[in-house]
Amino acid sequence: QNDEGRALAQEFVQFAIASGVLRFGEFKTKAGRMSPYFFNAGLFDDGAKLGRLAQFYARGLLLEEKTSGLQFDMIFGPAYKGIPLVAAVAVELARLGRNLPFAYNRKEAKDHGEGGSLVGAPVKGRVLILDDVISAGTATRESIAIIRAAGATPHAVAIALDRQEKAVENGQDVAYSAVQFVTRELGLHVFAIARLTDLLQYLAEAGKAPAVDAEPNSGDSLQTHY
Ligand code: OMP
Fold first, then answer.
1. Where are the beta strands (DSSP E) in the chain?
2. How close is the Cα of 111 to the center of ligand 1, in Å?
3. Which of 28, 110, 208, 225 is catalytic?
4. Which tens digits make up the pLDDT trace of 7-39?
5. Probe ligand 1: pick from 30, 37, 146, 180, max atoms within 8 Å of CB?
6. What's the ipTM?
7. Is the CB of residue 55 below 6 angstroms from any atom belonging to ligand 1?
8. How many helices (H) and strands (E) does the chain have?
9. Which of 1, 64, 80, 205 lies 20 to 30 angstroms, CA to CA, from 12?
C-alpha cells in the first residue's frame, strides 16, 4: 500500500462508518468468532452509496494495477452480494476508461432458458473475483471453486475489507491468515480497499478509544502488508 492507497483506505473507512455499514458492538462472524465490529456491505443500499462504493473499488483496482502488478481481464461477482457489486464496479471501471466483461453466478441451478449457473460474459482469462469481506477465507475459496469448475483460472481477488483474521481449514483455525492462504497457497493476488489496520489507524486518529483489539483472531502481524 503506497500513500495513495493508504489515503484511499482512510477515506473508505470514513465512508463506511458514515454509511452505517461499519458498526461497533458485539457480533458473531460466519466462522463463529466474536467480533467488536462488523462490516455489512448490504447497507450500501441506495444509488449514491453503491456508486461511491464502486468508485472506491475501481480507483483502488486501477491503482493496484499500476503499482502492484495486479492483472485482470474480467470481473466476477459471487452471488448474492457480489452481483450488484460487480455490475456497479464494471460501470465505474468503464467510466474510467477500462471497459471489462463481467459475470456472476446464480445459486440455484437452472434447467431451462440460458442454462448453467453462470450469467454474463464468458468466464475466461485472468478472472478477478469481486467480493465484500475476507474473514476466514471460506467465501473466497467457494468463489475460486466456482470459477475453476467453469474451466477458468481465478487470478485475483478484490474486497472492500480484509479483516486480517486467521484462515480456517477443515473447521480449524490455522497459523496463517486467510489472505496469506489465498496469496501464498492458492497464488492469487489479493487487493483490499481497506484492512483492519486501516480501521485501527482511523480510530486512533479520530481520537476514539481503540474499540477494536486485533489480536484474538489475527492471523498475521499488524505490521505485515500484502
Ligand atoms: P469468510 O468466508 O470467513 O472469509 O467471511 C466472509 C463473509 O462473512 C462475508 O462475505 C460476509 O458474508 C460475512 N461477514 C461480513 O460481511 N462482514 C464482516 O465484518 C464479517 C463477516 C463474517 O461473518 O466473517
1. 22-28, 34-39, 74-77, 102-105, 118-120, 126-130, 133-134, 153-162, 166-169, 172-177, 189-195
2. 30
3. 110
4. 999 999 999 999 999 999 999 999 999 999 999
5. 30
6. 0.98
7. no
8. 6, 11
9. 80
